[in-house]
Write a structure and sequence with these properties.
Layout (H helix, E strand, L loop, with lengths): L1 H5 L8 H13 L17 H5 L14 H11 L6 H39 L4 H16 L1 E9 L2 E2 L13 H13 L3 E2 L11 E7 L2 E10 L7 H66 L7 H33 L7 E3 L1 H11 L7 E5 L6 E3 L1 H17 L7 E8 L2 E8 L30 H11 L3 E5 L6 E8 L13
Length: 489
């Protein structure tokens, strides 16, 4: 009897455990139930667990649960062997298809990561352009990426997008952004939309929405849906990283702007104070009733007032020119000019004594089509800079020559010169070579370079072999002068 009880695992089970065992055996029943004798049917899973042979010995008592299990299984429609074999073959084919697609999908994902990592060195536009191209290729779809701005979705998608969104699709994308949930086609929310809208989620929040509309109109397969989620997640992280970089750059620019603002105020206040003090002192002396001045002394005081006013005027002109250049509002008023007249006028306004100027102009220099006022300001700045850093009583050389289709003007002094590492930096706003004497706003050379470049020329600094500093202006001079038309009588 002991051997019989060993073959009956469910004999004395409590009622609740007995019911659970019946349900378990009925659910794990894989072969189709039939009424074949036990010797001819397959073994049940619970029989394999308890090492019960398919042909049960005659002396082995029948498990009372066996009848209940068969009765429970018989209540349900169980697949036939042919159906089971067909389903198994279909599963194998599906697995084989996924295994074939996965290497291609992971290759495309790796390609996306590589391209995005490269484009991070460019800008956010390059990153989005690469993302749209890769998504369009992998998923055979039109793609639009709409970024966020100050916690809200921008009204228009990025310019690199290939999918045009109407007002309906924009509202669905806005819903996906505000609720951080997918919406649109193939989702449970607003499934009648033409495109699928996926929020670009990051740990810090949503950075935008990716909208996708397949060209075939069919729902993507399971493996493509998984790949789509991976693409969206990676693109969101890259966009967030690029936005953080841009925010850091803007913060750095803001700090630099504040620093430049402070430097400008300090410099301008010092530069304005000097001529204003000269004007105030000379004018107050002339207005004094208790002092009698000779005509020569009066002329000297008036000359000091005029020179200080000219210096103030140059400061204001440089500030205004820099403001127009940075705002893109500088318009050139070109006309035909004689270079000799232009340089002579600049010398006078720079208050360079004729005895300190060595002028050398090539013969038959052509007329140049320039903005006379702005180019006069350029040469005033260059002569003032050369005079400021030149030794007392030293000569300032001003040379103008023609080289091919260019006119070259060189302003040279005999000072200490510019260190090689600062030859380019002297054209930065407010930059001053370390160790130089105080004075100046640091705007003359940057403004002059910008004006010359607006005329299609160039301005750079050199170190002459004999010492000192040389500022070289090159202007285009190959333009033909139109013939002079006689006035009709």
């Amino acid at each position: 009897m002991a051997s019989q009880r060993a073959c009956v695992p469910g004999r004395d089970l409590p009622p609740l455990q007995r019911a659970v065992e019946v349900d378990r055996r009925a659910n794990v029943l894989v072969p189709a139930f039939d009424d074949q004798p036990s010797a001819e049917r397959r073994r049940w899973p619970w029989e394999r667990e308890h090492h019960v042979d398919a042909a049960r010995p005659a002396e082995c008592e029948v498990d009372p649960l066996d009848v209940e299990v068969r009765r429970e299984a018989g209540k349900q429609r169980v697949a036939t062997p042919n159906e089971l074999i067909g389903a198994h073959d279909e599963l194998l084919r599906a697995r084989f298809t996924i295994q074939q697609r996965l290497p291609v999908s992971f290759f495309r994902l790796g390609l996306l990561k590589s391209n995005l990592s490269t484009d991070l060195l460019v800008n956010l536009d390059g990153v989005l352009r690469t993302a749209v191209n890769q998504m369009s290729s992998v998923f055979n779809a039109q793609v639009a990426i709409t970024l966020s701005q100050v916690g809200q979705l921008r009204p228009e998608a990025h310019a690199s997008s290939t999918l045009s969104l109407d007002e309906k699709e924009k509202s669905v994308a806005r819903w996906a952004f505000e609720n951080n949930r997918p919406a649109g086609r193939f989702t449970e929310t607003l499934p009648l939309a033409a495109a699928q809208h996926l929020p670009l989620l990051t740990p810090a929040g949503s950075v935008g929405v990716l909208s996708l509309r397949g060209r075939t109109g069919e729902r993507p397969s399971f493996d493509l849906e998984i790949l789509l989620e991976t693409f969206v997640h990676h693109i969101a992280l890259v966009i967030q990283r690029e936005m953080l970089d841009e925010a850091a750059e803007e913060a750095q620019m803001l700090r630099q702007s504040e620093k430049l603002y402070t430097t400008l105020l300090n410099t301008i206040s010092h530069e304005f104070r000097t001529p204003l003090a000269a004007i105030t002192g000379a004018s107050s002396s002339l207005l004094s009733t208790g002092i009698l001045f000779t005509p020569q002394a009066q002329r000297d005081l008036l000359s000091d007032i005029y020179s200080a006013a000219e210096r103030l005027n140059r400061l204001v002109e440089n500030l205004l020119d820099m403001s127009r250049l940075e705002g893109g509002r500088l318009a050139l008023k070109r006309d035909w000019c004689d270079l000799g007249d232009l340089l002579g006028s600049a010398r006078k306004r720079a208050e360079l004594p004729p005895a300190r100027l060595q002028l050398s102009l090539a013969a038959e220099l052509p007329l140049l089509r320039l903005d006379y006022v702005l180019m006069e300001q350029v040469f005033i700045n260059l002569l003032d800079n050369a005079l400021r850093y030149a030794p007392e009583a030293s000569l300032i050389r001003l040379e103008a020559t023609q080289r091919a289709n260019q006119i070259e003007v060189r302003v040279t002094n005999a000072g200490a010169g510019i260190p090689p590492e600062d030859l380019e930096r002297v054209f930065d706003k407010f930059y001053r070579v370390p160790g130089t004497q105080p004075g100046g706003t640091g705007l003359g050379l940057p403004v002059s370079r910008a004006i010359v470049e607006a005329h299609g020329g160039s301005l750079h600094a050199e170190r002459p072999p004999g010492g000192g500093a040389c500022l070289v202006v090159r202007l285009p001079g190959g333009e033909a002068v139109p013939p002079v038309q006689e006035a009709a009588l």
